[in-house]
């Protein structure tokens, strides 16, 4: 593997946010269209938000272990089969794959993994145009509950997943008024979940302290009655997994520092969200744009990005 120079400007480099921006491969890449269709806004008690297809292309950069031109050819061929891919460039020397198009980053990772290689997202979009949110549960089970769940037989088709991290949302601003959202959740009970950006980024008490749905209007007095922070709903299947890819009319800088919540709670009672097993939450943090992050060795641990990724995956990271 070829390693570039260490860049200490991006302290989240290959650990934390950048590392877990690669997906666990829970879905096969050819289901991207299904994911787009399954993410539909809720109309219950609200003005319905139109589901918008992602049409504005953007660039993503992935670290991929490649040893020869044959590796590059396999990866390029697999990615060109994805709907929305317009350009793929594989650099064996630098161990990087650059992709342009409208396909979800998670779908690209899965397509690369289907060739027998791993992939780590290194950057998306232009500088200061990308963000990520690591979704965690703040629900605490009793010791007896935990013992029962751990004892469940493998393959029992249960949604139960005791990992703290339950999902990941990537955001890339692709135009002055459009941001694409690539959402993956797993290990939560089946059902219909509301996806919202919250007014605050205070997670002192988990989702309960994140405040109401973000309600900022682009044009006060002429905006929709639906809060801008309501992104829609997603259906979680019997195995506790779901993903979606869509665009929404906000800019990345507007939501940095806010909380992102995925929950089955309808909030019709006006009370703060509860930290139940149906709710996951994370802070929306800025992430690297394409070519912003060339770190391949962690300055803190001295580990390579692949060693760091292995450690993070063992902790339940996506």
TrEMBL record:
Q: Which UniProt keywords apply?
A: Cytoplasm, Disulfide bond, Metal-binding
Please give the biological process terms from Gene Ontology that the record holds.
superoxide metabolic process
Classify the main location.
cytoplasm
Q: Which residues form a coiled coil?
A: none
A GO MF annotation of the entry reads: copper ion binding
- Could you tell me which InterPro entries the record lists for this protein? HMA_dom, HMA_dom_sf, SOD-like_Cu/Zn_dom_sf, SOD_Cu/Zn_/chaperone, SOD_Cu_Zn_dom
Intracellular or extracellular location(s): Cytoplasm
Cite the HMA domain residue spans from the record.
Answer: 57-120
Region annotated Disordered, chain positions:
211-233
One Gene Ontology cellular component annotation held by this UniProt entry: cytoplasm
Q: Which cofactor does it need?
A: Cu(2+)
Which Pfam family is an annotated match for this chain, by its short name?
Answer: Sod_Cu
What is this protein's function? Destroys radicals which are normally produced within the cells and which are toxic to biological systems.
Q: Give the family, as the similarity comment puts it.
A: In the C-terminal section; belongs to the Cu-Zn superoxide dismutase family. Belongs to the CCS1 family.
Q: What is this protein called?
A: Superoxide dismutase 1 copper chaperone
Task: Provide the taxonomic classification.
Answer: Eukaryota, Fungi, Dikarya, Ascomycota, Pezizomycotina
């Amino acid at each position: 593997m070829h390693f570039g120079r260490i860049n200490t400007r991006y302290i989240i480099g290959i650990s934390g946010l950048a590392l877990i921006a690669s997906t666990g491969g829970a879905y096969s890449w050819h289901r991207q269209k299904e994911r787009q269709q399954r993410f539909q806004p809720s109309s219950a008690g609200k003005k319905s938000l139109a589901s918008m297809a992602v049409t504005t292309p953007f660039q993503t950069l992935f670290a991929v272990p490649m040893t020869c031109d044959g590796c590059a050819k396999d990866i390029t061929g697999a990615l060109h089969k994805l709907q929305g891919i317009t350009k793929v460039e594989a650099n064996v020397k630098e161990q990087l794959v650059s992709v342009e198009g409208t396909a979800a980053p998670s779908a690209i990772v899965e397509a690369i993994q289907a060739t027998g290689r791993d992939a780590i997202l290194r950057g998306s979009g232009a500088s200061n145009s990308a963000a990520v949110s690591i979704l965690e549960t703040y629900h605490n089970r009793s010791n007896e509950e935990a013992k029962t769940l751990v004892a469940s037989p493998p393959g029992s088709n249960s949604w139960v997943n005791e990992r703290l991290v339950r999902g990941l949302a990537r955001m890339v601003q692709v135009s002055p008024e459009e941001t694409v959202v690539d959402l993956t959740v797993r290990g939560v009970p089946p059902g219909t979940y509301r996806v919202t950006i919250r007014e605050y980024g205070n997670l002192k008490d988990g989702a309960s302290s994140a405040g109401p749905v973000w309600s900022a209007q682009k044009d006060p007095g002429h905006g929709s009655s639906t809060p801008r922070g309501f992104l829609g709903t997603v259906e979680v299947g019997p195995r506790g997994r779901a993903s979606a890819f869509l665009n929404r009319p906000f800019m990345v800088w507007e939501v940095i520092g806010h909380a992102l919540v995925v929950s089955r709670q309808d909030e019709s009672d006006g009370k703060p969200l509860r930290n139940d097993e149906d709710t996951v939450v994370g802070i929306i943090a800025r992430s690297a744009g394409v070519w912003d992050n060339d770190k391949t060795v962690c300055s803190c641990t001295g580990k390579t990005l692949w060693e760091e990724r292995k450690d993070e995956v063992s902790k339940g990271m996506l």
